[in-house]
Amino acid sequence: MCGALLGGCGTATATDAQQATAVTASVAADGAHNDTDVMYLQMMVAHHEQGLEMARLAESHADSDDVRILAKAVDATQSDEVTLMKSWLTSWGKPTEVDDAPSLHADHGGLPATGPEEIAALKKAKGAEFETDFLNLFVAHQHNAVEMAQMETTGGVNAQAKSFAERVRASRTDQIKQMLTMMNT
Fold first, then answer.
1. Distances from the Cα of 5 to the Cαs of 10, 11, 29, 74, in angstroms?
2. Which one is predicted more confidently, 151 or 20?
3. How distant, in Å, are the alpha carbons of 45, 48, 108, 147, 150 from that of 154?
4. C-alpha angle with apex 74: 72 to 80, nearest 5 degrees?
5. What is the mean pLDDT of the segment spanning 49-75?
6. Backbone phi, then psi, for 31, in 5-degree steps?
7. What is the DSSP string of the chain?
8. Are the CB atoms for 174 and 146 separated by under 8 Å?
9. What is the pLDDT of residues 160-170, one digit of tens each?
10. Residue 113: its pLDDT value, please?
11. What is the model's pTM?
12. Which percentage of the chain shows pLDDT scores above 90?
């Protein structure tokens, strides 16, 4: 099961992740961009940062090797993606932080759906309870990423940002399937 998890997440070793970081950070989002591209990247930076917080909790709190391996793969992938998204926003002269007024994002998948209360509860959970809570919360979290990616693929204009959104949609859908399998075994 562990090998399948790593394969689905796209990371194999620390060396591969380090090489991917160097390559990913150098990919420019050339060409035109619109407000949807900017809003998508800003929302995804916030979303990823929240996902990283949850994944890092799973790395240290999960009992299962499968959950810890998934969390480490998510950590490596999403850390690289945050660097990439922030570099694109910076190159476009746009803030890397999202305006957190909920009304601005209601029609676009919204801001990260996991609130501080859920994160606090996750921090307190132990053992099997932690893993169940983490998997349930992270399935919903990754589903939100899929919805936001759909907004970008239909409304964005920047080719690199749209391609990135498509990769996010595909990888998070695979992660959701893996987590549902873990929950049902």
1. 9, 9, 29, 10
2. 151
3. 19, 21, 11, 11, 6
4. 105
5. 96
6. 90, -175
7. -HHHHHHHHT---HHHHHHHHHHHHT----S---HHHHHHHHHHHHHHHHHHHHHHHHHHH--SHHHHHHHHHHHHHHHHHHHHHHHHHHHTT--SSPP--HHHHGGGT-S-S--HHHHHHHHH--HHHHHHHHHHHHHHHHHHHHHHHHHHHHH---HHHHHHHHHHHHHHHHHHHHHHHHHT-
8. no
9. 999 999 999 99
10. 66
11. 0.80
12. 70
Tokens at residue 47, please?
A: 């979303």
Q: What is the pLDDT of residues 99-154, one digit of tens each?
A: 765 544 444 445 556 788 899 999 999 989 999 999 999 999 999 999 999 999 99
Q: Print burial letters for 112-139: b (CB count within 10 Å at least 16), e (below 16).
A: bebeeebeeebeebeeeebbebbbebbb
Using a 10 angstrom Cβ sphere, with 0-12 exposed, 13-18 middle and 19 or more buried, the burial of residue 175 is buried
Give dist(CA 83, CA 45) in Å, integer: 9
Is it the case that residue 79 has pLDDT exceeding 80?
yes
The whole-angstrom separation of Cα 168 and Cα 144 is 11
Q: How many CB atoms lie within 10 A of CB 162?
A: 20
Structure tokens, 77: 């992938």
Q: Rounded CA gap, 176 and 166, in Å? A: 15
